[in-house]
Amino acid sequence: NWVMGDFVQLEIARIRELVGDRALVLGAVSGGVDSTVAAALMRAAIGDRFKAILIDTGCMRLNECEEVKQTLGKHLEINLTVVDAGELFMSRLAGVSDPEKKRKIIGSTFIDLFEEEAIKIEKAAENTPNTGKVEWFLQGTLYPDVIESLSWRGPSATIKTHHNVGGLPERMMKGVSRSTPRMFNPFFCTNVHGPSSKGCVLLFKDEVRAIGRQLGIHEDLVNRHPFPGPGIAIRILGDVTQERVEIARKADHIFISMIKEAGLYNQISQAFAGLDTNRSVGVFGDQRVWGYIVILRAVQTKDFMSADIFDFDNAFLKNVSRTICNQVDGVSRVVYDLTSKPPGTIELE
Ligand code: XMP
Is the ipTM here above 0.95? Predict the structure, then answer.
């Protein structure tokens, strides 16, 4: 019978059996706990034949890519390749305000870039004995993301097309390898050891965190709030521009730092600052200004399918608002989102 404690050993054995002793595995890493745990399992199972890639969309949090690279290298001995693609994403997103269009553009740009990386990796491995092609694509996606993305009751039932679900293995790297890489997901897969009689693993966030702890992943990383693949781009209501990303990024950094300083980070499941790109009037000194509206969001949830808002002290929120207005140019107002999920979703788009 399946128990959580066995998962790591069973999964490593399953990876070795499926991947064999020649194939290469490409893995998307984001710095979040899910992709980090998936990467740690793959690294433990096949060593350097696992190639971890982080795509810098230009819409990441402050200093995020460098921090993720260092953490993975130091604690997990994973040599992460960071692909700096901020300008490409920004140019493809120019003038796009529809959230689903943003997700689709970002998703297909991710695939283009993974495709390029796979070609480079296969070229580099050409003269390495006993090394095959990129046959697998690793992705640590959780069940709730899958449920909300699949349109199994028809297209109208799709809540959001999380960019990282679906479409990847089908489209990716056609013609690069001898065969299209297959998707490998340690948290959501069928026909393996698993809790149900059908042999299907469906892991939730708290279970993935428990596995992360078993693997010795640092507590800060294990407890890290999730961050969506499209990043700040889906936290800006409206067109994404460099200026708007920078404003949202600075405001977010202030909010999260103040949450950490107040010792509240681990009581909150996910928090961020987004941007309403309508302008609102403010007064700075004796000047009238016309600035953006920062939206603060913080929720508590177990499964991310429903969520309650976090009850901050008003004094704390006032302090965050004052600090953001004082330190981030272009912001005239800060609001706190009081909507639970449902009806609101966790992200603004
Ligand atoms: P929502 O907004 O759907 O968020 O209530 C639920 C969880 O999913 C994350 N999320 C995404 N993750 N790509 C991702 O990788 C996406 O397009 C996406 N949209 C939402 C969100 O951050 C939350 O943890």
Answer: yes
* Ligand 1 center from residue 227 Cα (angstroms): 7
Is the CB of 145 inside a 6 Å radius of any atom of ligand 1?
yes
Q: Whose CA is nearest to atom 24 of ligand 1?
A: 226
Q: What is the pLDDT of residues 50-106, one digit of tens each?
A: 999 999 999 999 999 999 999 899 889 998 999 999 999 999 999 999 999 999 999
* Class of domain 241-336 as given by CATH: alpha beta
What tokens does 61 get? 């949090």
In this structure, which CATH number among 3.40.190.170, 3.40.50.720, 3.40.190.290, 3.40.50.620 belongs to the domain 4-222? Answer: 3.40.50.620
For the chain, what are the domain ranges?
4-222, 241-336
**Residue 208 phi/psi, 5° resolution?**
-65, -40
Six-digit token string for 126:
């050409």
Give yes or no for a contact between 228 and 162, defined as CB atoms under 8 angstroms apart: yes
- State how far the Cα of 15 lies from the Cα of 144, in Å rounded to an integer: 23
pLDDT digits (tens, 9 = 90+) for 282-316: 998 899 999 999 999 999 998 888 999 999 999 99
Q: How many angstroms does the Cα of residue 348 sit away from the middle of ligand 1?
A: 10
Please name every residue paired with 276 in a beta bridge, in sequence order, or none if there are none.
237, 293
- The answer on whether 329 is annotated among ligand-binding residues is no
Query: Ligand 1, closest atom to CA 348?
Result: 2
User: Cis omega before residue 343 (within 30°)?
Assistant: yes
Q: Return the ligand 1 atom nearest residue 145 CA.
A: 8
Report the nearest atom of ligand 1 relative to the CA of 106: 17
